[in-house]
Predict the 3D structure of the following.
Amino acid sequence: MSDAPPPGAEDSARVRELLPEPGETTIAARFADLGLIERAPADRPYTVLNFAATVDGRAAIDGRAGPIGSKIDGELLQRLRTQVDAVMIGAQTMRAERYGRMVSDSSLRSWRERIGLPHDPLAVIVSGRLDLPWDAKLFTDGGGRVLIFTAAEVDPPETATPVRVVRHDGYVNLIDALRFLRQERGVRALLCEGGPRMHAQLWAAGLADELFLTTSPKLAGGDAPSILEGELAATQELELAWLLEAEGELFARYAKA
């Protein structure tokens, strides 16, 4: 890791650290070196998940997660993406959020190279039917790389961004998918950003290691999903590693107990 401060550190959002050491810090400082890559096991990537939720536990407003978090949450997500080899999402999340390039800031992409990572994290999509918004900027921008796990037999269209498809029989097996990422693509740290069903599947299969959770000071109501939708074999205990606050928004890092 580089000893130089990350780009934009002087303009990074200031936050209060409530735990473990009360005081002031910035998002840039807190996310400069999370040590995720060094924790990778041999058979799969070290897997962290990032979600934002309202105070009443909703993971979407009007069908999207984007309106929940603030600009500070947006900076947190971009800096978290600088710390991993790959970012994984489900097809429904891709359709709802219509992702662009995973690290949109060119200075942060350069920072990745300075700390020994590829210019862009690998974008990983799990899509059983290969039903994706091919006109989204992730595919049309031409930057980075995309790998799609699917059970569909159809081929994707031509895209500006390079796309590789890995096919599974019947359904996408996440255990096999993460093993492929680790052993065939050298992915040591993986960030998963949704959706809620994939979140549940990762915890149920013992594939999740950490959770970064933003709690927005909003009430959404309705029947929107929570950050986790699905059955677990048992309640998963978590340990709070840190807790940050800014303008009533809470940013927590949890580790698997």
About this structure: The two ends are 27 Å apart (CA to CA). The chain has a mean pLDDT of 94. The longest helix spans residues 174-185.
